[in-house]
Amino acid sequence: MSTTHSTALSVNLNKVALVRNTRQLEIPSVPFAAAMCLDAGAHGITVHPRPDARHIRPHDVRDLSLLLRQDWPAAEFNIEGNPFHNLMDHLRDLRPHQATFVPDSETQSTSDHGWSFPADADRLRPLIAETRALGVRVSLFMDPAPEMMAAARALGADRVELYTEGYAASRGTSRADAVLQLYVDAARAALAAGLELNAGHDLNRDNLADFLRAVPEVREVSIGHAFVADALELGYTGATREYLRCIEQAR
After folding, report:
1. Hey, which of 11, 216, 226, 242 would disulfide with 3, CB 3.0 to 4.6 Å?
2. Which CATH superfamily is domain 8-250 in?
3. What gap in Å lies between CA 232 and CA 236, rounded to an integer?
């Protein structure tokens, strides 16, 4: 595979909200974090509002939507979530650029698997159609399973987000090459089916460039936990520039 584009960086701000929610002081500010990242060159903002509002809360989603529309019209807003929980309400109200459908349960600490077909197909199909009718791009959170990609496209998805924890966890082990090849094969299958590619989960400054060299067709990476951890040391601006450097390094 070859690339003719640069991968976009979408910063996930869930963990900024998680820290804020430990007190009633409204600091750190989620909109301020978004503005700092975008000012430093990030291409978009991602949030994953869960039903229990453990981190991102409904007012955050609205505030970020307004901020991006008013001050950063070229930046992309990506709202992640389970369409059978609370995601669809946000999509109907705000119509972001992209919706990433994630099959997480309400009790999970973080996303840990992708959709499976044909098991999830019938219930996803009408929600994908509704979301696209709203003018919102649909990305499905998927394991690196090449055999699932044509089915994702058949449901009407525009993109898949490859769940990259397996890649990150295999680094430095005897399985690393075989696991990475799964992502390469899944990417090829997705492209062959007419899908575009996103990627996310446990990507960081140590593994991002290598992943993008192997899978150069990725349109967007969504990075949250590692990004916020780095921002504690480097600041929002420094962390953003470091991740953009990793993306450029991959080219």
Report:
1. 216
2. Aldolase class I (3.20.20.70)
3. 8
